[in-house]
Design a protein that fits this description.
The structure holds two protein chains of two kinds. By secondary structure, chain A is an all-beta fold. Helices cover 0% and strands 57% of the residues of chain A. Chain A has strands at 4-7, 10-14, 19-25, 30-38, 45-51, 56-59, 62-67, 72-77, 86-94, 104-106, 110-115. In chain A, the strands form two sheets. In chain A, strands 2, 4, 5, 9, 10 and 11 form a six-stranded mixed β-sheet that branches. A five-stranded antiparallel β-sheet of chain A has the order 1-3-8-7-6, with no helix packed on it. In chain A, a hairpin with a 4-residue loop joins strand 7 (62-67) and strand 8. By secondary structure, chain B is mainly beta. Helix content of chain B is 0%, strand content 50%. Chain B contains no helices and eleven strands. Chain B has strands at residues 5-7, 10-13, 19-24, 31-37, 44-50, 53-57, 65-68, 75-79, 88-95, 103-104, 108-112. The radius of gyration of chain B is 13 Å and the shape is globular. The chains are: A mainly beta, B mainly beta.
Chain lengths: 116, 113
């Protein structure tokens, strides 16, 4: 079973509207949570990285939240633009060892389509 | 362009053939990662290098797969005797330090006919 679950699987929104994507994880112990944006046919691009002590982090019109107690994160897109059409992937880094990279767990992504 | 570059962008091959992909990481990054991604899924970890040392391989990396990073700079991923199930996007990423964000290349899309 995947340790990182994202919802919805896909969504369609009108240009200018807001939307929120969800990420639930079971990875434990926890190191950090990342959101990536992946355009079709391209590699993922980092949006935010949050550690255990961070509740929210913004990157332009993208705002990520983290509740480490309930193991939930959300990515909010404000005033969506056509260029926001992409897959948004939640990635959780586990472990408290010095080399926790290897425990990166990827969600399947939420496909967002912004229509004019 | 100083990002991660991968070559080729696309590769079509017949089942049973060998293929090799190349990744050039960001020059000062000593950590390099290979991932595989199929449609509608997130990337799956294949292997990881710190400098020239291959430190970990996923069990997804069967004995038909081999990766090298001979001088701690670029890396190659070779798949021998390709199978249709190998069809996927192969992504390379690099990072400078542990737990820092990964910078991904645009990937190599492999299609095995």
């Amino acid at each position: 079973k995947n340790q990182v679950e994202q919802s919805p699987q896909s969504l369609i929104i009108l240009e200018g509207k807001n939307c929120t994507l969800q990420c639930n994880y079971t990875v434990s112990p926890f190191s950090n949570l990342r959101w990536y944006k992946q355009d079709t046919g391209r590699g993922p691009v980092s949006l935010t990285i949050m550690t255990f002590s961070e509740n929210t982090k913004s990157n332009g019109r993208y705002t990520a939240t983290l509740d480490a107690d309930t193991k939930q994160s959300s990515l909010h897109i404000t005033a969506s633009q056509l260029s926001d059409s992409a897959s948004y992937i939640c990635v959780v880094s586990g472990g408290l060892t010095t080399d926790s990279w290897g425990k990166l767990q990827f969600g399947a992504g939420t496909q967002v389509v912004v229509t004019p | 362009d100083t990002g991660v570059s991968q070559d080729p962008r696309h590769k079509i091959t017949k089942r049973g053939q060998n293929v090799t992909f190349r990744c050039d990481p960001i020059s000062e990054h000593n950590r390099l990662y290979w991932y595989r991604q199929t449609l509608g899924q997130g990337p799956e970890f294949l292997t990881y290098f710190q400098n020239e040392a291959q430190l970990e391989k996923s069990r997804l990396l069967s004995d038909r797969f081999s990766a090298e990073r001979p001088k701690g700079s670029f890396s190659t991923l070779e798949i021998q005797r390709t199978e249709q199930g190998d069809s996927a996007m192969y992504l390379c990423a690099s990072s400078l330090q542990l737990n820092e964000k990964l910078f991904f290349g645009s990937g190599t899309q492999l299609s095995v006919l």
